[in-house]
Amino acid sequence: MEAPSTGTPVRVGLLGCGNVGAALAVLIDEQRDDVARRTGLSFQVVSVAVRDTSIDRGVPVPDGAFTTDAAAVVADPDIDVVVEVMGGIEPARTLIVAALENGKPVVTANKELLANHGAELYSIAEAAGVDLLFEAAVAGAIPIMRLLRESFAGEPITRVMGIINGTTNFILTKMSGEGTSYADALAEAQDLGYAEADPTADVEGHDAGAKIAIIATLAFGAEVVADDVYLEGISGVTAADIEAAAHLDHCIKLLGVAERRGDEIGVRVHPTLVPNGHPLAAVNDSFNAVFVEGDAVGEVMLYGRGAGGRPTASAVFGDLIDAAGNSARGHGAPIGSLERARISPMADLETAYYLAIDVDDRPGVLATVAAVFGEHNVSIRSMEQSGLGGEARLVFITHRARESDLQATLHDLRGLDAVRSVGSVLRALGD
Ligand code: NAP
Predict the structure, then answer these.
(1) Is there a catalytic annotation at residue 211?
(2) Distance of alpha carbon 53 from its chain centroid, rounded?
(3) Where do the domains of the chain lie?
(4) DSSP reduced 3-state for 306
(5) Which of 399, 394, 310, 419 has the alpha carbon at shortest distance from 351?
(6) Ligand 1 contacts CB of residue 111 (under 6 A)
(7) Distance between CA 277 and CA 261 in Å, rounded?
(8) Cα(32)–Cα(260) distance, integer angstroms
(9) In this model, does residue 62 exceed pLDDT 50?
(10) Collapsing DSSP states into helix, strand and coil, what is residue 294?
(11) Where are the beta strands (DSSP E) in 134-262?
(12) Cis link prior to 363 (omega < 30° from 0)?
């Protein structure tokens, strides 16, 4: 057994000590000697800002480290690096700006903040000449930020697609594997602690939307914010859709997609029909994966845990080591000033679609329905009928079509006497 290394001390100020902050304090303590041997740096959490100092958090930090004065932590000249894991926009934004302007590198896991104010913060970090690193903000332990910032800095990326919300992937996996209804799968996710009591941010796509905005900004080097992202959640996905998808050798996944369309960028989150042969179809339960496509590199996929205190803390610690090392070497990893991205309207999207339509089962109906598709240049790739009489349902998969043409088709289908209802409409990968 080697003797513990000492290493140059790096004093860490922690803003927040919840799931991620507490796991980080433990990980730093466990790994201190190994990290010091490998990097020459010895990390010590010296201050921890929380709202309530009376809670015993059982974390290995010095007596008296806890404080409610977060502003004092970021101003403290004895603190070398600040880690923000409190979440939310304010006071996190003000504290990060103050830390950067005080010359301290900052590591954050805060997707909500970066998806709304990222460009401002990247530019302040560059002006201050210190790092702002945020690997943990997107897909937890999966090193997608580092990949986009460093490995693919010279790659002409065309598209990034990800399963970047573990809660919804867990729910969709349950619905697929066990034929469970959406409501039952959500209740199980809540029982297991994968979903919040109010699951809106996850199931309606807001969480994935914030993450895909951050991914798009790094992948295409232009500012994309949360409000730019087209959002559709999974609450409308039914057990019948999952069954129909399986019948067509597909599964349904909530995908975040960022893609280049000419000199514009399209960003969207929606349930998507994924062919069972695609690598993203094999990503189940609460796991995340990010699939990158580039002109030079081809296709690359990363897979792992997208959340949880310890996996997320691992990503934060990796950033902490980078930020402290860069600071000691006198150079960092700036993103710099970004122009606002030109966002491609959703109406211009071209993709394949899945549609389920409830119709009257009588002669001529199929031809009438098919004619509506044709009038709007939407070409049908496959069609299946299930049920008879009042239970008849037609399921279509189209070839690639424009979103605006598809919406016009839906509008006209809803106006047909023979169409009782237009059910699910899902975008599909492939074709
Ligand atoms: P959490 O468990 O709710 O912990 C938040 C911590 O911040 C608590 O210790 C809280 O103090 C403290 N805090 C909040 N507001 C504060 C304020 N105004 N002043 C001082 N302290 C304040 O949150 P978490 O799950 O660790 O998440 C932290 C961040 O990591 C969020 O940005 C989240 O999006 C991100 N993230 C989390 C995960 C995950 O799996 N949990 C994964 C990826 C990214 P008290 O304890 O005293 O209330």
Answers:
(1) yes
(2) 32
(3) 8-140+310-329, 146-305, 346-428
(4) coil
(5) 399
(6) yes
(7) 25
(8) 42
(9) yes
(10) strand
(11) 157-163, 230-231, 250-261
(12) no
Tokens of 254: 């909530």
Distance separating alpha carbons of residues 144 and 162, to the nearest angstrom: 10
Structure-block tokens of residue 21 = 């902050």
Listed residue (116, 373, 97, 118) closest to 221, CA to CA:
118
Cα–Cα dist 428/408, whole Å: 18
Whether 19 lines ligand 1, by a CB cut-off of 6 Å, is yes
Query: What is the DSSP secondary structure assignment for residue 223, as one 8-state letter?
Result: B
pLDDT value at residue 4: 53
386 forms beta bridges with: 393
Residue 231: what pLDDT? 98
Residue type, 228: D
CA of 68 to the centre of ligand 1 (A): 14
Catalytic residue among 111, 174, 211, 253: 211
The CATH superfamily assigned to 346-428 is ACT domain (3.30.70.260)
| pLDDT tens-place string over residues 400-414 | 999 999 999 999 999
E strand residue ranges, 276-347: 287-294, 298-305
Secondary structure (DSSP) of 320-331: HHHHHHHHHHT-
Give the residue-averaged pLDDT of 321-333: 87
Structure tokens given for 91: 């006071």
In CATH, what is the architecture of 8-140+310-329?
3-Layer(aba) Sandwich (3.40)
Cα torsion angle, 387, 175, 354, 207, sign: positive
Site of tokens 């859709």 = 241
pLDDT of residue 5: 57
Cα 121 to the center of its chain, rounded Å: 19
From ligand 1's centre to the CA of 25, what distance in Å? Answer: 13
Atom of ligand 1 nearest to the CA of 110: 32
pLDDT in tens, 120-165: 999 999 999 999 999 999 999 999 999 999 999 999 999 999 999 9
Please choose, from the candidates 401, 396, 383, the residue with its C-alpha nearest in 3D space to the C-alpha of residue 422.
Answer: 396
What are the angstrom distances between the C-alpha of 186 and each of 207, 234, 371? Answer: 16, 11, 39
Q: What is the arithmetic mean of pLDDT over 289-305?
A: 97
Dist. CA 431–CA 412, nearest whole Å: 24
DSSP lists the bridge partners of residue 15 as 49, 84
- CATH homologous superfamily for 146-305? Dihydrodipicolinate Reductase; domain 2 (3.30.360.10)
pLDDT of residue 6: 83
Task: Name every residue whose Cβ is closer than 8 Å to that of residue 163 and which is 6 or more positions away in sequence.
Answer: 169, 253, 254, 255, 256, 280, 283, 287, 288, 289, 290
